[in-house]
């Protein structure tokens, strides 16, 4: 197994890699190691999953999906990827409310970092979690259901509480989606009509490459139902299938042009069978309260000359508030300002620090799975339940078996 993440910008310092296939085997790995980090599909861009001792790959924790039609849930092994679960659900007439931009990521890894798609009325992927099975560092198997005392702290867990062996997700009857892409939206119209545009379809993303700073290159809309979204301004639909990155052919992207298709073939931007995005990139994201989104975007516009040469594309997405302590949308409707960068780590780190600093006044939260300066002062300010989370982590893991420097920094900020 490669000891590097998907982007290749992180090499893990693990002494050994274990790939357990059952709860018993997870317990054995936890009992035999001094320090452990779970590793899902390794799509995070920072050192969150790193360890100097044992990496526990979840690749074989993939029990077959169990659908409960009455409760409207599905239970799967934590190592399963969304792209593997989705066809199994669709075959039985069921769907998930949303997907991230790609279906390649593991379910437990995605929910541990607050991964999200877009949609004013749709929560993060973590908010679809109805239950978890967790093996604690001491080897105890815990079942947590929505409504249980520790549940809201245990979903976006950063891998701090143990190894998630099963996840139960909300499902709903399958539905069709029509995806349409519109091109060349003036930035001023986007800002003036922000709510109307983000609310024009079930899921909306704005893609801005910043080479022409005052024009948003593409608006991706994913609609349930037959109506084409009504967008302000004289913005036209792309006449053919497009990619959001300049000069990249669109084979990897899910079907556009308004043709109806099942949710699993439209909600993600990228097909499971293809490399998502560019493959040669870094990512960062700041999540700002919806109420400050337009102001925050104006600040970003003001800095464009300084970061634009490093950007491949920026994506703006929205999500509904939830109650999960470390969720990007904890207790506030939220807008994500995501950046896909050129793979120039040190320059990108400088740009990320500049943007994070500039967006501090808006209470911007960093994405747990992407590049961030992880400033403890900011973390403490933007996540009001961080102290409770640190306490929960200490209770689940008194010996610090799941700790690594990334987590130490987060938990110290929560003191
Ligand atoms: C091309 C690309 C596109 C992306 N698109 C999006 C997007 O649309 N939206 C978005 O929000 N993010 C996006 N991301 C970020 C991505 O969703 C997160 O990094 C997510 O964590 C990936 O899941 P993973 O399984 O790869 O996690 P990993 O990177 O493997 O792990 C992340 C964390 O989860 C923990 N973890 C993993 N599995 C378990 C488990 N079973 N039990 C306990 N802890 C566990 C790990 O210990 C670690 O702390 C994207 C990333 C890439 C590379």
TrEMBL record:
Keywords: Oxidoreductase. PANTHER family: D-ARABINONO-1,4-LACTONE OXIDASE, L-GULONOLACTONE OXIDASE. The lineage of its organism: Bacteria, Bacillati, Actinomycetota, Actinomycetes, Micrococcales. GO terms for cellular component: membrane. Residues 10-174 form the FAD-binding PCMH-type domain. InterPro entries: ALO_C (IPR007173), FAD-bd_PCMH (IPR016166), FAD-bd_PCMH-like_sf (IPR036318), FAD-bd_PCMH_sub1 (IPR016167), FAD-bd_PCMH_sub2 (IPR016169), FAD_lactone_oxidase-like (IPR010031), Oxid_FAD_bind_N (IPR006094), Vanillyl_alc_oxidase_C-sub2 (IPR016171). It comes from the Bacteria. This is FAD-binding protein. GO terms for molecular function: D-arabinono-1,4-lactone oxidase activity; FAD binding; L-gulono-1,4-lactone dehydrogenase activity.
């Amino acid at each position: 197994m490669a000891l590097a993440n998907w982007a290749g910008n992180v090499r893990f310092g693990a002494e050994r890699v274990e790939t357990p296939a059952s709860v018993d085997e997870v317990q054995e790995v936890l009992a035999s190691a001094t320090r452990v980090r779970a590793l899902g599909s390794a799509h995070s861009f920072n050192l969150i999953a790193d360890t100097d001792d044992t990496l526990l790959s979840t690749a074989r924790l993939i029990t077959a999906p169990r659908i409960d039609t009455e409760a409207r849930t599905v239970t799967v092994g934590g190592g399963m990827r969304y792209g593997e679960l989705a066809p199994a659900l669709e075959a039985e007439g069921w769907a998930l409310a949303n997907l991230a931009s790609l279906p390649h990521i593991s379910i437990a890894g995605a929910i541990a970092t607050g991964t999200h798609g877009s949609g004013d009325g749709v929560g993060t992927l973590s908010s679809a979690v109805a239950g978890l099975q967790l093996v604690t560092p001491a080897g105890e198997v815990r079942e947590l259901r929505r409504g249980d005392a520790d549940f809201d702290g245990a979903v976006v867990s950063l891998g701090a509480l143990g190894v998630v062996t099963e996840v139960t997700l909300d499902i709903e009857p399958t539905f069709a989606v029509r995806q349409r892409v519109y091109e060349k939206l003036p930035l001023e119209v986007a800002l003036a009509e922000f709510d109307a545009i983000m609310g024009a379809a079930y899921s909306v993303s704005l893609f801005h490459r910043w080479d022409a700073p005052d024009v948003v290159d593409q608006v991706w809309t994913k609609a349930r139902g037959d109506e084409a979204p009504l967008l302000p301004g004289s913005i036209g639909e792309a006449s053919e299938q497009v990619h959001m990155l300049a000069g990249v052919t669109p084979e990897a992207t899910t079907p556009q042009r308004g043709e109806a298709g099942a949710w699993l073939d439209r909600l993600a931007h990228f097909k499971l069978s293809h490399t998502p995005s560019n493959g040669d990139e870094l990512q960062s994201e700041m999540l700002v309260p919806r109420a400050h989104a337009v102001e925050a975007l104006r600040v970003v516009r003001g800095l464009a000359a300084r970061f634009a040469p490093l950007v491949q594309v920026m994506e703006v997405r929205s999500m509904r508030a939830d109650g999960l302590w470390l969720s990007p949308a904890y207790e506030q409707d939220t807008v994500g300002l995501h950046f896909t960068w050129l793979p120039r780590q040190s320059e990108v780190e400088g740009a990320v620090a500049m943007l994070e600093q500039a967006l501090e006044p808006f209470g911007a939260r960093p994405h747990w799975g992407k590049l961030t300066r992880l400033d403890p002062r900011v973390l403490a300010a933007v996540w009001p339940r961080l102290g409770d989370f640190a306490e929960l982590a200490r209770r689940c893991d008194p010996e610090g078996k799941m700790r690594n420097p990334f987590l130490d920094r987060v938990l110290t900020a929560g003191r």
